[in-house]
């Protein structure tokens, strides 16, 4: 029988060892947890512990793997380094943790270099501008979450390294930037999870954007719907939040709630459904996106159920991402050909309304690249890829081919079919107008891996 939990109580690594859940974990797992959680951020809450994990066999549970560090998230040598340092001084341990985190590629895809905008002489804090129409805004009070996902590519935001944090103390600079860049129609308020803030704080960040006429859509990136649905249901602060949503819609801007939904199980609790209804009643739209993760959701049946259940609840399936090359990504990695196979199988099981989901998509340095299929060109297998979004706008829609590689799990692992370099790797060369850069394959294999 589930305990009803209506008050938010975070659970840290230290706190977990004092709770009854700890007793359900094997001795081997406890050792893994105590070592890996030194490096990887860990935070859950009583609601997710109670509602999403099967405590009769937790270590086989996909939601457990989504929330708890696992063996294989650190390499053997990293694990041994931390284990040894735990028996040394606190300075040694801190240094071992720092070195290990550096090895985990904390800022992939040029996040700390190529995406940070300037205004005059100023480098702007807490804003990223990668694609012409969309800017990301990171309010400093929103750089944590109701629980942490073990895969999260935003993990450097959570580990207390000030130099790694992307954050803005207020919205004024971002507003000035938007006024100078009227091509930006969408702002994504993200984190962490911006809905970790109370509504008064959130309002302080959001209201200035309502006065920017060129801005058409305000997006929130959040997992609060499933990690803490009572954020939308209980008390004065929830009512304030929903009023803020209504005010955004009443201002004439579109409010797009970008929900992180990783597994179909997340939609089961009745309070999650109630939270979704409450958000939609404000006039906001909800879209869902998540990465494909080995050990968690690498099963087309799970995705098909997630997308079908989303559509039934009025949520638009949006993206199936490829897990980014950061943090413990080696544990979650799915080869690109297999990712395409899972996507194709999942999308073939859902009705047309759920086929709004695009994937598998790599959010890479040059842009969002979707794997469209596995094709055969003059007897050679290849991956057919296409830019959905790009740092360089003329790349959008361009199709390109890469040699089939059974082990490739990211764009950087691929080589162009026929040799040379990909067109987007060419530095200092003028870009050509958008045009398919390929010849029709002799036979489309339609996602079937032979
Ligand atoms: S809720 Fe979102 S930002 Fe927070 S850890 Fe999960 S994926 Fe990352």
UniProtKB/TrEMBL annotation:
SUPFAM superfamilies: Radical SAM enzymes
InterPro entries in alphabetical order: Aldolase_TIM, Lys_aminomutase/Glu_NH3_mut, rSAM, rSAM_sf
Database matches in Gene3D superfamilies: Aldolase class I
Protein name: L-lysine 2,3-aminomutase
Cofactor(s) the protein requires to work: [4Fe-4S] cluster; pyridoxal 5'-phosphate
Molecular function via GO: 4 iron, 4 sulfur cluster binding; catalytic activity; metal ion binding
Family: Belongs to the radical SAM superfamily. KamA family.
Keywords: 4Fe-4S, Iron, Iron-sulfur, Metal-binding, Pyridoxal phosphate, S-adenosyl-L-methionine
Natural source organism: Nitratireductor indicus C115
């Amino acid at each position: 029988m589930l305990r009803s939990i209506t008050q938010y109580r975070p659970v840290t690594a230290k706190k977990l060892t004092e709770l009854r859940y700890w007793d359900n974990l094997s001795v081997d797992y406890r050792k893994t947890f105590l070592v890996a959680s030194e490096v990887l951020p860990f935070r859950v809450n009583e609601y997710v512990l109670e509602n999403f994990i099967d405590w009769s066999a937790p270590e086989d549970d996909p939601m457990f793997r989504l929330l708890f560090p696992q063996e294989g998230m650190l390499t053997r040598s990293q694990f041994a380094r931390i284990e040894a340092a735990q028996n040394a001084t606190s300075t040694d341990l801190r240094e071992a943790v720092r070195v290990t985190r550096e090895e985990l590629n904390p800022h992939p895809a040029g996040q700390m270099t190529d995406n940070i905008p300037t205004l005059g002489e100023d480098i702007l804090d807490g804003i990223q501008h990668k694609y012409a129409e969309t800017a990301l805004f990171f309010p400093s009070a929103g750089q944590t979450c109701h629980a942490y996902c073990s895969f999260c590519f935003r993990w450097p935001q959570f580990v207390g390294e000030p130099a790694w944090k992307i954050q803005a103390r207020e919205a004024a600079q971002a507003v000035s930037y938007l006024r100078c860049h009227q091509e930006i129609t969408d702002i994504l308020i993200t984190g962490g999870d911006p809905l970790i803030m109370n509504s008064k704080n959130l309002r302080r960040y959001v209201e200035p954007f309502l006065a920017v006429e060129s801005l058409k859509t305000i997006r929130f990136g959040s997992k609060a719907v499933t990690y803490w649905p009572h954020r939308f249901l209980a008390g004065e602060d929830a009512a304030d939040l929903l009023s803020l949503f209504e005010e955004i819609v009443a201002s004439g801007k579109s409010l797009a709630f970008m929900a992180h939904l990783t597994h179909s199980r997340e939609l089961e609790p009745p309070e999650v459904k109630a939270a979704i209804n409450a958000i939609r009643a404000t006039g906001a739209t909800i879209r869902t996106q998540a990465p494909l993760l080995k050990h968690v959701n690498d099963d087309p049946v799970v995705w098909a159920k997630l997308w079908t259940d989303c559509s039934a609840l009025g949520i638009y399936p949006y993206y199936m991402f490829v897990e980014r090359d950061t943090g413990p990504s080696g544990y979650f990695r799915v080869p690109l050909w297999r990712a395409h196979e899972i996507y194709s199988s999942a999308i073939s099981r859902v009705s047309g309304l759920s086929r709004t989901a695009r994937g598998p998509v790599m959010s890479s340095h040059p842009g969002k690249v979707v794997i469209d299929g596995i094709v055969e060109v003059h007897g050679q297998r290849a991956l057919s890829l296409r830019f959905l979004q790009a740092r360089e706008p003329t790349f959008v829609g361009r199709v390109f081919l890469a040699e089939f590689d059974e082990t490739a799990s990211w764009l950087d692992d691929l080589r162009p079919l026929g040799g040379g370099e990909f067109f987007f790797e060419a530095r200092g060369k003028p870009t050509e107008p958008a045009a398919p850069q390929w010849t029709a394959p002799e036979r489309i294999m339609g996602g079937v891996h032979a």
